Amino acid sequence: MDDQTRIELEAAAFRRLRQHLMEERTDVQNIDMMNLAGFCRNCLSRWYQEAANERGIEMDKGAAREIYYGMPFDAWKSKYQTEASAEKQAEFEVAFKENVTDKS
Questions:
Q1: Range of the domain at 79
Q2: What CATH number corresponds to the domain at position 56?
Q3: Per the domain annotation, does 64 fall within a domain?
Q4: Which residues are within 8 A (CB) of 98 and not within 5 positions of it... i.e. 6 or more apart?
Q5: CA distance 33 to 31
Q6: In a domain, 6, yes or no
Q7: What is the DSSP string of 14-63?
Q8: What is d(CA 73, CA 45) in angstroms, rounded to the nearest whole number?
Q9: Contact of 99 with 39, CB cutoff 8 Å
């Protein structure tokens, strides 16, 4: 497989993951994703931002989230995000320490 085909397939897989999370699984909360997988939609938007910045495209966190979520992040939270239980928040604290480095 040539590099261009590999890049196109990787991009298609990313677009499908985004579509799945944004259209078919809005019920899955970011905190659940973090607790189980160590990443969430916000991580994906941050990785998008970092890739843009590495290529000289200026993009801040808010712009990257709006591109990823397809709407302002506050609108997404209002429409889909639910309050996390104390148990989920405690799990998140452990998962965050184990899986995420601060890139802000």
A1: 28-93
A2: 1.10.3340.10
A3: yes
A4: 38
A5: 5
A6: no
A7: HHHHHHIIIII-TTS-HHHHHHHHS--HHHHHHHHHHHHHHTT----HHH
A8: 11
A9: yes
Answer with the residue of higher pLDDT: 97 or 49: 49
> 């970092």: which residue's tokens?
50
Q: What is the C-alpha to C-alpha distance for residues 29 and 81, in angstroms, rounded to an integer?
A: 6
At which residue do the structure tokens 């148990």 appear? 87
Taking only the tens place, the pLDDT of each residue in 61-90 is 999 999 999 999 999 999 998 988 888 888
Handedness of CA 67, 46, 19, 77 (dihedral sign): negative
Q: CA–CA separation, 93 vs 57, rounded Å?
A: 32
Closest CA to 24 of 65, 80, 75: 80
* Residue 20 covered by a domain: no
Q: In total, how many domains does the chain have?
A: 1
pLDDT per residue as tens digits for the range 36-59: 888 899 999 999 999 999 999 999
